[in-house]
Design goal:
Blueprint lengths: L1 E5 L5 H11 L5 E4 L5 H7 L4 E6 L4 E6 L10 E4 L12 E6 L8 H19 L13 H10 L4 H12 L3 H18 L7 E8 L1 E2 L11 E2 H4 L3 H18 L4 E9 L7 H14 L7 E7 L6 H9 L4 E4 L6 H6 L6 H14 L4 E7 L6 H14 L3 E6 L7 H9 L8 H13 L3 E6 L10 E5 L6 H8 L3 E5 L4 E5 L5 E5 L4 H6 L1 H13 L1
Parallel strand pairs: 1-2, 1-3, 5-6, 7-10, 7-17, 8-9, 10-11, 11-12, 12-13, 13-14
Antiparallel strand pairs: 3-4, 4-6, 14-16, 15-16, 18-19
The structure holds iron/sulfur cluster.
Length: about 500
């Protein structure tokens, strides 16, 4: 537990997010200034920070602790800072704001000050600068929609948020591509549909999604589908005057269901909703150990246009470690099977920074994926969620056991380019290894439109099933969410309440 004391509670989210970005192993806690814990913590060698918002000056003092007493001392000038302070075991950073307090400009300038202080303290910088949100491309896209030029947008990202030149160029490139791809959608009267199947063959080490092992839940799948069908009927009625643009079945692993259960679900969706305008119908087949020929045939016969077969890595040792319980060969077989049956849009997901993986391992994964020649590649940078088994694994094995680097990101980007793919969507998560991003690459005619929609919040996405979150995007730019409960038993038992929440959101 690391401590930051502050005389004001403002900007707590940004402060904690930036601290986690610079010090991934920390669990920073904010305390009131009169807290007694400081001296004890310093003696124990733990860093303590004190942030003081004064009338004319904001100071950040970092007490390095007994273990760090040999650090450079003194005051570091930040954006117009002041005089030298006496030598002791602390570092002091100061900022004299020119912006009026309480304004967005003040907040942004504070974030720059805090970010620069941490850069100085750690002698590093972050690829996305002080941006802590998950949608950096949304900033670029919004500015361009407002008529700002590429130069103005790039300048804003670089100077206001201290984003690196390389990431600025990536954000702009993706924003332009997204605008072009979305131009064919029914913005005004359209919507997309998400259906969650919260079952998987086993639970992966890093998983933080709603996922239940199918083996233990087999007997309740029928009940789950019955509840889901009730929600499907209700949603179809609520949305009967709207145009359905894209459909995405995710989870979990939808192909954990049997072929018969999949046929039941898809048949229900097709009969309840009007699919005549649907531009894309995705099912995440995901885990190779859930894919069979009869299931793939059911998907194809019901008009599914796009699937994912996700290896995450092509190194068997890592697959075993992260609990995927399938082999590299199974991934290859599942992929070939899907191609042979007739799927011409197959995405593969990989994760960079997996425990123990080196740049050479990632290069090997990329080569193995290239040999399969998928249509799209989604590159995730490992995000460590405390709730996952990986969070506990890292506690036991240390934060250095997983690592993503610029070099590894570059290997993946070069691999995608060699497969004739371009980046078309991007998002970030909390606690990402190396503070990088997740990037969707695709061949130019195989983009996953749903991925852009969910990321850029351009259209209402109605989400059905346990743990799903419906996001209403309204014409006055309001975005409102409503959640379904995660627990499958609760979802089944409280399905009428889930429907009621949706009705309230969509009918207003
Ligand atoms: S396949 Fe995905 S949803 Fe299922 S356990 Fe693994 S990470 Fe979680």
């Amino acid at each position: 537990m690391q401590i930051i004391k502050s005389n004001k509670t403002q900007f707590e989210y940004d402060i904690q997010a930036l601290l986690k970005s610079f010090y991934p192993e920390w669990e920073p806690r904010m305390l009131a200034p009169d807290s007694e814990v400081r001296d004890r913590r310093i003696l124990e060698g733990e860093p303590v920070m004190e942030l003081y918002f004064g009338e004319d000056e904001v100071t950040l003092e970092i007490f390095c602790g007994a273990a760090h007493l040999d650090h450079t001392e003194g005051l570091h000038n930040m954006e117009g800072a002041a005089e030298e302070v006496g030598k002791d075991s602390r570092h002091v950073y100061a900022w004299r704001p020119k912006e009026p307090t309480g304004t967005p400009e003040y907040k942004n300038a504070f974030k720059r000050f805090f970010y620069r202080s941490l850069c100085e303290e750690t002698q590093t910088s972050l690829p996305w600068g002080n941006l802590t949100g998950i949608r950096p491309t949304k900033i670029a896209m919004t500015m361009m929609e407002q008529g700002k030029s590429e130069e103005e947008t790039a300048d804003y990202l670089k100077t206001m948020h201290l984003v690196s030149g390389e990431k600025t160029a990536l954000a702009l490139d993706i924003a332009k591509r997204e605008q072009e791809i979305l131009s064919t959608l029914h913005y005004e009267n359209g919507y997309s549909l998400y259906v969650g199947i919260p079952f998987c063959p086993t639970t992966c080490l890093y998983c933080s999604f709603t996922s239940y092992p199918i083996g233990a839940w087999k007997k309740r799948v029928g009940e789950y589908l019955t509840a889901l069908e009730k929600e499907i009927d209700a949603a179809a009625k609520l949305l009967r005057d709207k145009i359905l643009d894209t459909v995405y079945i995710g989870g979990g692993t939808p192909t954990s269901l049997s072929a018969e259960e999949l046929a039941r679900l898809l048949g229900k969706l097709k009969s309840a909703f009007d699919f005549s305008h649907v531009q894309e119908f995705t099912v995440e087949a995901g885990r190779a150990d859930s894919i069979t020929e009869d299931k793939l045939r059911v998907l194809l016969e019901n008009g599914v246009t796009r699937i994912s077969v996700n290896p995450q890595t092509m190194k068997q040792e890592t697959l075993d470690l992260i609990g995927r319980r399938h082999t590299v060969e199974q991934v290859e077989e599942a992929f070939h099977l899907a191609r042979r049956i007739g799927f011409d849009n197959i995405n593969m997901d990989i994760i960079l920074g997996l425990p123990g993986e080196t740049a050479a391992d990632v290069a090997h994964t990329i080569e193995a994926v290239k040999a399969l020649s998928p249509d799209a590649l989604t590159v995730h940078s490992l995000a460590v969620k405390r709730a996952s088994k990986l969070g506990k694994w890292i506690e036991e094995n240390g934060a250095t056991a997983y690592n993503n680097t610029e070099e590894i990101m570059e290997i993946a980007a070069r691999g995608a380019a060699a497969m004739d793919m371009v980046p078309y969507y991007l998002y970030r998560q909390k606690n990402m290894s190396g503070n990088f991003e997740n990037v969707g690459y695709s061949r130019r005619d195989k983009y996953g439109i749903y991925n852009i929609l969910i990321n850029e919040e351009k259209q209402t996405i109605v989400a059905l099933g346990a743990g799903s979150i419906t996001k209403g995007v309204f014409s006055d730019n309001r975005i409102e969410r409503c959640e379904n409960v995660k627990d499958v038993g609760q979802y089944i038992g409280r399905i009428d309440e889930m429907i009621g929440r949706k009705r309230q959101l969509l009918e207003g």
